[in-house]
Amino acid sequence: IGLHIDFLANFDLFLVLFVTIVSILGKFVGAWIGALGTGLSRADRLSIGIAFTPSGVTGIVVAAVALESQVLTVPVFVAIVFSAVISSLIVGPWLAWSIRRRKEVNILDFLTRRVISPSLRGSSPLAVIRELCDKVAEHDDRLDREALYEAVRAREELMGTGIGNGVAVPHARLRELAKPVLTFGRSIPGIEWDSPDGHPVHLVFLILTPEHEEGQQLQILAALGRGMNDQHARRQLAEADNSQQVWTALQDALRTQNLVRVRAD
């Protein structure tokens, strides 16, 4: 293209800025709106919108065809080419900025040692859920234990939360919470939890998140899945003799599991 067109002679700064802004803004808004119905967090929608802003080679080829057909003038074509180059150059720093707005927190920041149950008494999923909910409500008097149990029970009855490898992750969203709460309980004899692998559940993580959280419930679920995928970590938890050893085993298994949180500002 550069061999056939004098870009400097046909360069119009106002036209280049106008086409670039309209092109980038249009694609950003389109992608951002398209992500609205997906359940993604605001931070994820921002990054998706930014990722869709560059103009590719296809746009230049279409513009070249339009120029040959005399649908476009040469200055407009030059503005489209400059727009494609500019949008491709800025997407990297812009996307990096959207990621830097987030800060990492470790999953252990949501786990309170005092609400850990190294030896659960319940023999069924709902009995264990009530036991863990009672433990959380005892620690935080702002939470109503019955409402807490009903929220987790309703989610559990919708679809079982056994994930295999002897692990279950019952969870719920609550309006009363300001930040996620994570607790852990261990059943030594094991509980039938309708897990996909058919094995009884020994390790139960109760996850509670705010009603309008920024995708952290999914991040916590994924982090627990990664941490408990390690057979050595599961064995450490299963063989721990006391609360201190259970806590140490949890720290060893989860200390590398970081979550992304959007900065308040």
Molecular structure report:
- The protein has 265 residues and is α/β, with parallel strands linked by helices.
- It is built from nine helices and seven strands, in the order ααααβααβββββαααβ.
- It has helices at residues 13-34, 42-51, 57-68, 74-100, 125-139, 145-158, 216-228, 231-239, 243-254, and strands spanning 102-106, 162-164, 167-168, 171-174, 181-191, 201-210, 258-262.
- Strands 2, 3, 4, 5 and 6 form a five-stranded mixed beta sheet that branches.
- The longest helix is centred in the first third of the chain and has 27 residues, at 74-100.
- The relative contact order is 0.12.
Characterize the main sheet. 5 strands, mixed
Mean pLDDT: 87
* Helix content estimate: 40-55%
Structural class from helices and strands?
alpha/beta
Give the percentage of residues in beta strands.
15-25%
Can you tell me the overall shape?
A: elongated
What is the number of strand segments? 7
Count of discrete alpha- or pi-helical segments spanning 4 or more residues: 9
Topology order in helix (H) and strand (E) letters: HHHHEHHEEEEEHHHE
Low-confidence stretches: none
Tell me the Rg in angstroms: 26 Å
Rounded to the nearest angstrom, the distance between the terminal CA atoms is 45 Å
